[in-house]
Amino acid sequence: MLIVRALYGTATAGRDFRNHLRECMKHLNYEFCSADHDVWIRKAKRDDGTDYYEYLLLYTDDCLCVSEHAEEALREIDKYFSLKENSIVPPKIYLGGKVSKVDLPSGIWAYTFSSSQYVKEAVKNVEQYLDKKNMRLNRKASAPLSPGYRPELDQSRELDPKDAAYYQSLIGILRWSVELGELTSLLMFQ
Q1: Are residues 108 and 184 both part of a single domain?
Q2: CA distance to 14, 31, 74, 112, per residue, from 23 (Å)
Q3: Which domain holds residue 130?
Q4: pLDDT at 7 over 70
Q5: Same domain, 186 and 167
């Protein structure tokens, strides 16, 4: 096959990838979860003969498999999407969140998910950025904004394009921190 042009960055690249992914997953007998199209499920049998569902969480280039035979399921995926050989291991990180295996009081083991590592790294990066500008985070802030702050009266200078892009990236990091925290809470209470 000769590649004339890569599809990255085209207006339809995301849709085209999602359609390709959907066809591959259907071929492997997975169905997407109607609540979240990045979660794929299929019926499976445990070694003891009981029925259960395998889950594949696919988000861009991150893949997490929840299955009694996770390695086999990932090897099937590898036929359609090349996975790095050393990436087919028990999970440690997924989408920036830390994944850990724990033994429950009931004697069963389970995986936990924590967003704390992502948040620590985000704060560290902000501190490094501010350090370059001879600025520091306020360590004793009782609220996100000072009491009496009136944004309509703010006369701060407008950000240059570089600082505006950095500020927008911070908003993305904050949104992802909240999303990971919601996922952590959801998994804890199910």
Answers
A1: yes
A2: 14, 10, 16, 31
A3: 92-139+159-190
A4: no
A5: yes
